[in-house]
Structure formats: C-alpha cells, structure tokens
Amino acid sequence: MISKKNTGNTIVDIARALDISPSTVSRALKDHPYISQATKDRVKKQAAKMGYRHNALAAGLRNRKSNTIGLICPRISMYFQSSIVTAIQRKVQEAGYSLVICQTNDSYEIEKQVVNALYASRVEGLIASCTLHTEDFSHFDIFSKSGIPLVFYDRVPRSYPAQVIRGDDYRGGTEGAEHLISRGCKQIVYISGPLTCNLYQDRYAGFKDALQRHKLPLPKKNLFFHELTLENARRTCERIFSKKPWPDAIFATNDTTAIVAEQYAREAGLKIPGDIKILGYSNDPRTEIIDPALTSVEQFPAVMGEKAADAVVELIRKKTQLKKTMPPIITPVELVVRASTGGRMAGS
Amino acid sequence: MISKKNTGNTIVDIARALDISPSTVSRALKDHPYISQATKDRVKKQAAKMGYRHNALAAGLRNRKSNTIGLICPRISMYFQSSIVTAIQRKVQEAGYSLVICQTNDSYEIEKQVVNALYASRVEGLIASCTLHTEDFSHFDIFSKSGIPLVFYDRVPRSYPAQVIRGDDYRGGTEGAEHLISRGCKQIVYISGPLTCNLYQDRYAGFKDALQRHKLPLPKKNLFFHELTLENARRTCERIFSKKPWPDAIFATNDTTAIVAEQYAREAGLKIPGDIKILGYSNDPRTEIIDPALTSVEQFPAVMGEKAADAVVELIRKKTQLKKTMPPIITPVELVVRASTGGRMAGS
DNA sequence: GGTAAATATGCAAACGTTTCCATAATTAAA
DNA sequence: TTTAATTATGGAAACGTTTGCATATTTACC
C-alpha cells in the first residue's frame, strides 16, 4: 500500500521548511505577542504557500476542548424548531463554535443515544429540547456531573441542574382562555399535547385557572390530550363535530391542530368566528394565510434560540458551575389576534 | 492552580486498573476478534464502573478521521431547506456520523469562511447548497483537491468535480408553463430568482422553451428577476397590478412570492383562477392552506436530502475519487395542481 | 561593565487513542 | 515430540498541536 503522506502539511512541516521550531510556528500562527513580526510574516507566508490547514482535532485533543456545541431537538423541520435552530446556529457560529445537531424524532431511545454520542465527541456545551416522552432526565447526568454547560429550551425538565429557557406557557394558556372568554365563549374545547411534557402542563394550568376565575365549567368531554399530529387532530375533530351540541370555541395548543379544526368546522357548516372561534399556538406562518386567519400565541422562537445560544456560550466562558437553583429564563409570549376569534376589536 | 486530573477516565486508566495493556483495552472495547471473551467482559465492566467515555477527538487524531460530515446551507428555517436538512441529518446519524451544520445567510463571505472552518475541523465529507451569489466555487477546492467527498444539492455548480444533486428544474419550469398554457393563459408574468443561480436558470429555460413551442411571446415587461424575498415580491406585485392590462397568469418560482401575488390579485379585485391563474414553486405547506389553494411544483425535499446524505456516505465508504465527469443526480419534480390554476380537471 | 527586565525562540512532554509488530500461550498437525 | 498455526496480549510509536519551562538575545538602567 502506498502510504499517502499527510494530507496537507503540518506545523512541523512548516517548522522544518523554515528551520525553526514547531512551537514558534504554532505561536506565530496565532499571533502570540512574544514572536517577532518578522517571524510571523515568514511563517504565515510559508503556511499559505504549503496550503497549511489547522487541525482542530489535534488542537482539541491537546487543549481538551472541541470548540463544538451540541444541539438536540425533536425534529428540525417543524416551523417552530427550525426557527430556533436557525437562531442558535447563527449565534453559535458567531461565537466561534461549531454546532453539531442531532434529532430525536421524539424517540426517547434515540435521545439517550445522541446524548452519549455528543458526550463522546466532547462538545463543550449542550443545548437540548427533549422528546415528548422524556420524564427521566438522568441520561443527561454525564453532562451535569462533569460540569459541562447544559441548556434546555422549550421542552425542559422541571427540576434539574441546568439552565432552562422556556416560553411563558402558563401565560399563553391564560391569555388564550381569557381572550376566548372575553369574546363570549362558554363551551371551549381544549386540545392539548400529552401532559408528560412541561409546556402542555403549564398551558393547561393557565387555561384551567382562567376558566375557574370566570366560573366556567370544564367538562371532560371538552378535553383532549394526545400527541398533536395531523392524524390525531383529524380523529379528534371528527369526534368533536360528529354530534351536537357543538362547542363555541376550540383552543388547540399547536397550529396544525387549529388549522385542522378550522377545516372541520367549516365542513360542518359553521361560521368562523360567528358560530365557533378557533385559537392556535405558535403563530406558524400558515396561521396568517388561512382564511379566516388564525388567532395564535406567538412564541418568538428566534428570541428563544438566541437566549439559549447566549446561555451556553456564557456558561462555557465563565465556567459557571450549574446549580439546581439556577432560575429559568422565561421568554415572552404574545397573543396575535386574527379573524378566527373575531379579529382586533375597536377599543381593545 | 489545582490540576484537575483528567475529566473522566481513559483507556490507560482502565488498563492500569486491570493491570493489562492499553492496546488490549482498546481492542476489547471494540470487540476485536483476537481478544478473549473473558477479557472483553472484564474490560467493559471496568469501563462502565469508571464511567469511561470514548474520546472522539483522540481517536479522530490517530485515525485521521473525525466521523463528522459538514453541511452548508443558506438558511435552515426556510421550509424547503429545513425539510432537506432534516432528511440529511437523519440519514447521516443513521450512518454513524455527526453532522455539523453551518448557515451562510446567503452571504458569499460567510460561505468562504465556513468552508474553511469545516475543512479545519476535518469533516470527512461536505454537503453544500450555495448562496444565491456563488458563481466562483474555488473556495471548495481545498476539498476537491484533497479528495474529500463533496456533494452539492439544489444550488449547485455547473461544472465542478463533485457529486451534484438537483431537482429537475428545467422540467419544473416547463411543466408549470405547459400547465398554464393548457388552461388558456397567454400573458404569463414570470417572477424568478437571480439568474446567477443554476436553478433559476434552468427553470427559466424550461419556461421559455415551453412558451416558444407554443409560439407565445415573452415580452420583457412580463419578466422579473430578483431575490425572492417578501419585500421584493410586494414591490414587484405593486408594479404588476398598478396598471392594466393585467396578466392572466403569474408563475412565481417560489411560494412566498406566489402567495403575495395571490393576495395582490385578490386586492385588485381579480378572481382566481377566473381572471388570473397563479402558480408557485416548492409546495410549501402554506400553498394548500391558502384560499384558493396554490398550484405549485413539488420538489420532494426529503428525497433530495436522502440522496445527498447517501451520496456522501457512499463516497466516504468507497473512497471514490471525484471526477469532473460525475453525472448529476436529478430528483423528480411534480406539478401539484390546485384551485389557483383551476384545479384538477375532469379527464386530465 | 553589570544586573535586570523585556523580547524571542527552542525543547520536550502531553492530550487519548489506535495499530504495527513482536511475543507468549495454546492448540492442531505432522 | 517437534513444528506450525492459531489465539491472545503487550510495547511503543504515531496522529498534530500546544505550552511550561528553559535559554538566548537584546535593550534599559544604574
């Protein structure tokens, strides 16, 4: 076998070519103050000439750092996630780190695998949004125990020594409910994701509290809890519209479900917002396209992503030890009122 | 300074603990056939006990490989891109590689930077979709010259020693045009991205050829070339609808633009598809939500992503040298006919 | 002219893994 | 029983970079 020498050229090669030591070359390349300008110039010129490329692996090994941050998210292609990922990627790139992205597809098994894989690849920090089914977070212990910065966003643990970034889900639930109530709705169907997940818990709590404040009943038949897929949305809507009495509002905790609800309501011959009002969550681009446009809760994914990225970078820089008591960062939500609930009203 | 010993534990530590050699431990951990089962068991048990974690950096340095694949794309959050990225990530993860994702934000400067950064981090393969302004691809030479697998998708170079995956844009342009013509349109406005980019060139060529075949004129005033942003779409639509005669069709080469066109046409009091037909490109989720639903050209991003991922992995495995003559992989497109152009017709 | 500081460079070890090449132990073949 | 093959393990170097420490040179100040 022909031993193809080294790919390009190493610091040692440059050193040999210039008859100086590798240390000097290394220092010259990163503008160490104690290297004379003359030497720096020679080294850089030679490096360019030989097509030298820094080897991040070797440097990483020596320095025990990879300049890499890991990201775990359920699915990149969902609008809300992709917006967050975009923001995180941009920020992390600006801070000089590489971002290694993994998807769990909402599989707890895969989540455990990728956590381990990212640990093995020595990421310097980890940003994660968990699967819908993650209730046991102990697979993240390898990070928290070895003091590697760990930031959760959106789908986060309740109590874990890590920085947590999450939307104000309680408020989202409350504002949605208050809005519907203020528009006179009494029979509100609430379609939620599984309560294993913190954000659906909080939204539901906010929703329930608002109803209670207004002394409105909340019968079981108006409550649906399941993964918010297209198929599930259809099944639920079929149930809802299969027989009267029909509800006068549907609050869906994601937009896909709200969109399906609108379609089913229309097919059932109901006027929106006259007969029934519909409210979604996340302010997906489709919400302002559909007719009537959907009222939805904006979550500012870009802000959330930026905060998550800033948080890891900050933690890495400051070498902060993560405490269980670290206060969560709550990002704002904002109800975007559109036609599906009657639109902006005069004086409101 | 207190020298915090090594993070967790290394192969050497395990070796010491069991009083065997590091080579044996290394081999045992990866089930080398020449290691006895007894030893393997002991080693693995000890590894688990000591919380040993493989160090991918050290292994990468030694093996001169990183088990990492790089991905460069303009913007993750655009629907088409995020679908591709999702597919690529999944495939790459399945194949046992990590995926490092970079965004260029359509900046040529950033593209050059990230290409270099990914090279330095020793990715074993690179998947890239270029910026709209990339006409000179020489910054990718460090990859092609060092024989590192290089795969372009969607926005690709015309002639470069790399594997190219692209949609059948010529056909997309043709089918769109033929469809509009078959529905009786004569004054078709064509809104395209800049012709610096291969895919807009091809779509335009397909469009133009179809018109020519049908002996339809193509006046300058019906042609618009600019980046397909929301703002540009609005500006163009204002121009289009500011004065009669109005066109009887608009073919926009992305969906955002087509959606804006629909809105402007509606505002101008035109009936869709009666007075004007509108056609988009990419089959964004919004196209089937908007009313009337938009006819659009489906590009099967998941397929494209899978092919791209398969291609890099294959190239890495086979160590294929990239030749300039490597035939491009063309993924299919499919016109999805909806109401905005009259919907599916009987017998078609 | 002597000492001290500042400037510039080199030596060598270390990061943790893998693998080529020995060697030792066991089994099979002659 | 010797030789050959097989099975199991160890030694040591190498991957390419960085950095603490040492040393050499220059400049500055008494």
From TrEMBL, chains A, B:
Which keywords fit this entry according to its UniProt record?
Answer: DNA-binding, Transcription, Transcription regulation
Superkingdom in the source lineage: Bacteria
Pfam families named among the record's database cross-references: LacI, Peripla_BP_3
| The keyword DNA-binding appears for this protein | yes
| Matches recorded under InterPro entries | HTH_LacI (IPR000843), LacI/GalR-like_sensor (IPR046335), Lambda_DNA-bd_dom_sf (IPR010982), Peripla_BP_I (IPR028082)
List the SUPFAM superfamilies: lambda repressor-like DNA-binding domains (SSF47413), Periplasmic binding protein-like I (SSF53822)
Q: What is this protein called?
A: LacI family DNA-binding transcriptional regulator
Does the record bear Aminoacyl-tRNA synthetase in its keywords?
Answer: no
Stretches assigned to the HTH lacI-type domain: 10-63
Q: Name one GO molecular function term.
A: DNA binding
